[in-house]
Task: inverse folding
């Protein structure tokens, strides 16, 4: 027994020693991060932000970059300015930058990239739809726009401004062999597609002062347990985690950079015409009043979020704290609103269910709460492959969704509000809102916040949506410096991780 | 033997074509709007149409299937829809990882199970009770729960092994051992329990047969009778169970690989299915079916080699 105890003690001591060695390695000159999604393509013109942002920010530079709070900063473009009509944007391109294939960055290279980002049917294409022409003028790049686009600079600080080596544009190999001017170079020999992406330092990087690590490893953890264990064991220094694991990880000594990017709630898609009771503003207001948002946040998402009745995020200039509490929970008040509507005896709405993503419980709550005010929910079960396309096809009156709330208000307006916006599926319009949006597009930066607030007021008062709460996003980290959550993105941008 | 092998190969080919057609059909009708899944929420209808055109999704089902089949017969599964690499570039390295884990698990489970099962049958008592208890635990506790327990204890609380990831043997043998031990242990328990129970039962039956008494009467030692004759007779059923376990572990490894973030077929199957990456899923279906057919064939041939009384029919 004595020898067994001695053996056990030696084994544990050895194990602990191994652990400390592992920890020291992770905190050295290699930055090890965990991502929940693998890249679809590594080509510059297929760049994505969200959970996939790091794969592109590792290799490519962007024309503009963003501080943690969303403030725009110089990237490959050192200066930028609009003409008076805001239909022409001039970017001054940084000199002395080289791509890792040895070619130099210049205005012509940027032009080629912007055209590819717009025309190659990638995730960035939509963001550059307003760009009519792009030309090089000496060291400047001039973008001529079809109409004023208040979001363009923000897009250029995201994926639309991604710049890769011109020699690689359009090549099939660009999807797996990216060439940029960014801080790192993909080490294809050590990379295991879909599970681990290994990067080495770019020896000729122009901004070495901002690169704190000699190497970068991004591992893919599509499973929550794997991500949690990787963080707890020190295999990685940071990763996006679910709310269910936050407390466990905090207890294990990890810090959290938390933001409020996604808004969960019911979204309406039959506001136009009269085929559905959703077209009645009082029905929409009644639905907004029929949910106890605080209780739902607690029961569905463990309290990790902020109750709200507006869609604008705190990162938007249109955000108004008053609209976080516009529709207080009251079944009596909701019934009164129904009585005032054109459907005093109630109505039936069709909604999709997608339990694999949202769970069963939330649909039971929706059905029960709306049932209390006389709105019967006819549920249709959807699969992952058909859920979005059927919503976009206008099959439903309303749907449960967790939408990302872009800090960029123009992006939000064009995604959800304007006639023709992707998720304004029935092309609903209100004259006041349409006019305010037109004013916003032309307004100076100083006047835009007031217009956005006016738009927000209209949207909330007329119950365009029924958001319940903004979900808390959590980036868990240890051994690295993360100033705060990234405004408008689910994970911190790579260049903001120190 | 040759006739049997050729017949099984032919049956295998027919089965592969049938499985492929069925799988492709089911994926086709259940895939939904693949282009939307790939391009995301903000893609315009024009972008969606363009991608559908690029992927050939606007063509009739049978045309799509035949195009796929013409590549698949050459083991070329085409381009993945959710990754920049081709299906082959991702699938085969991952197949190697999964087969390594499953084969190692089978080997470990077989060795321990044969030893424990034989000892339990011969000596009974404490060893027998351990085998019975193992059987109970192995059947009752799913592999992923064992994985949770093992990773918490041996990778996080006492960090002896790796909690996540996989290192190739050629890259670093000791890291390979640290990365593979816990997944193998998690998968081995249920296989070990099943095979040990089978060996115990088969040895118990065989040991009471007349030929054992006859051999003993002829003066052969008990150990020689057991290891040369009894185990050989008892090996057939155990081998069949081992084959079943091997195939079962291919499925069971999905969860275990997810938990340990092992770059095997499991996570690839989950992520490809989630985005309706039909070429990837079809590659997985074909390769998995092929492995199952080959393993079953090998088990049949081994059973015959082990016991000539087994007729290959």
Result:
């Amino acid at each position: 027994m004595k020898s067994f105890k001695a053996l056990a003690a030696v084994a544990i001591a050895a194990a602990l020693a191994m652990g400390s060695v592992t920890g020291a390695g992770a905190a050295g000159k290699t930055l090890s991060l965990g991502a929940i999604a693998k890249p679809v393509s590594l080509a510059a013109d297929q760049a994505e932000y969200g959970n996939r942002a790091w794969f592109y920010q590792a290799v490519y530079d962007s024309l503009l970059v963003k501080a943690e709070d969303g403030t725009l900063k110089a990237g490959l473009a050192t200066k930028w300015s609009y003409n008076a009509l805001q239909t022409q944007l001039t970017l001054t391109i940084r000199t002395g930058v080289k791509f890792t294939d040895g070619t130099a960055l210049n205005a012509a290279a940027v032009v080629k990239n912007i055209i590819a980002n717009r025309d190659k049917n990638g995730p960035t294409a939509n963001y550059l739809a307003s760009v009519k022409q792009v030309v090089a003028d000496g060291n400047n790049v001039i973008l001529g726009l079809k109409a004023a686009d208040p979001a363009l600079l923000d897009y250029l600080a995201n994926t639309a401004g991604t710049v890769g080596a011109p020699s690689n544009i359009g090549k099939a190999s660009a999807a797996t062999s990216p060439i940029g001017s960014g801080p790192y170079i993909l080490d294809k020999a050590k990379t295991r597609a879909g599970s681990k992406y290994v990067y080495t330092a770019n020896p000729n990087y122009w901004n070495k002062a901002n690169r704190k690590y000699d190497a970068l490893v991004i591992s893919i953890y599509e499973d929550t347990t794997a991500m949690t264990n990787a963080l707890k064991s020190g295999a990685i220094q940071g990763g996006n985690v679910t709310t269910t694991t936050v407390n466990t990880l905090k207890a294990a000594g990890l810090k959290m950079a938390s933001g409020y990017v996604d808004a969960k709630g019911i979204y309406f898609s039959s506001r136009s015409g009269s085929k559905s009771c959703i077209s009645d503003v009082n029905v929409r207001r009644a639905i907004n009043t029929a949910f106890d948002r605080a209780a739902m946040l607690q029961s569905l998402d463990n309290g990790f979020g902020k109750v709200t009745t507006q869609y604008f995020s705190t990162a938007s200039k249109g955000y108004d704290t008053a609209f976080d509490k516009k529709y207080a929970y009251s079944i009596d008040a909701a019934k009164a609103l129904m009585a005032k509507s054109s459907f005093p005896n109630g109505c039936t709405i069709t909604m999709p269910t997608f339990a694999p993503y949202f769970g069963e419980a939330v649909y039971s709550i929706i059905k029960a709460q709306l049932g209390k005010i006389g709105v019967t929910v006819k549920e249709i079960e959807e699969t992952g492959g058909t859920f979005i396309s059927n919503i976009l096809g206008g099959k439903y009156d309303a749907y449960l969704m967790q939408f990302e709330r872009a800090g960029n208000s123009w992006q939000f307006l064009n995604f959800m509000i304007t006639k023709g916006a992707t998720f304004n599926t029935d092309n609903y319009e209100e004259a006041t809102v349409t006019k305010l949006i037109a004013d916003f597009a032309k307004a100076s930066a100083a006047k835009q916040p007031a217009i956005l607030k006016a738009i927000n007021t209209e949207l909330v008062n007329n119950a365009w949506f029924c958001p319940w709460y903004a979900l808390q996003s959590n980036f868990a980290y240890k051994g690295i410096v993360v100033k705060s959550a990234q405004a408008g993105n689910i994970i911190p941008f790579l260049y903001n991780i120190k | 033997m040759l006739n049997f092998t050729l017949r099984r190969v032919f049956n295998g080919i027919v089965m592969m074509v049938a499985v492929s057609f069925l799988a492709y059909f089911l994926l086709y009708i259940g895939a939904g709007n693949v282009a939307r899944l790939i391009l995301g929420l903000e893609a315009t209808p024009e972008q969606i149409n363009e991608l559908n055109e690029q992927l050939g999704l606007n063509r009739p089902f049978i045309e799509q299937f035949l195009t796929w089949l013409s590549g698949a017969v050459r083991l070329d599964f085409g381009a993945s829809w959710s990754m920049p690499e081709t299906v082959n570039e991702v699938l085969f390295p991952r197949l190697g990882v999964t087969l390594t884990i499953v084969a190692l698990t089978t080997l470990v489970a077989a060795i321990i199970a044969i030893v424990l099962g034989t000892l339990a049958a011969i000596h009974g008592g404490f060893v027998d009770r351990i085998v019975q208890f193992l059987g109970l635990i192995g059947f009752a506790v799913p592999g992923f729960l064992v994985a949770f327990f093992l990773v918490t204890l041996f990778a996080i609380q006492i960090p002896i092994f790796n909690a996540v990831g996989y290192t190739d043997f050629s890259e670093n043998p000791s890291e390979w051992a640290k990365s593979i031990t816990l997944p193998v242990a998690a998968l081995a328990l249920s296989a070990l329990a099943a095979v040990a129970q089978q060996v115990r039962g088969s040895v118990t039956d065989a040991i009471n047969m007349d030929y054992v008494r006859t051999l003993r009467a002829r003066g052969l030692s008990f150990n020689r009778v057991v290891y040369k004759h009894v185990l050989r007779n008892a090996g057939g059923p155990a081998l069949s169970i081992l084959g079943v376990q091997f195939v079962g572990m291919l499925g069971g490894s999905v969860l275990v690989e997810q938990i340990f973030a092992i770059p095997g077929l499991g996570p690839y199957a989950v992520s490809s299915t989630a985005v309706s990456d039909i070429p990837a899923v079809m590659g997985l279906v074909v390769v998995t079916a092929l492995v199952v057919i080959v393993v079953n064939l090998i088990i049949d041939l081994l059973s015959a080699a082990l016991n000539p009384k087994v007729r290959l029919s």
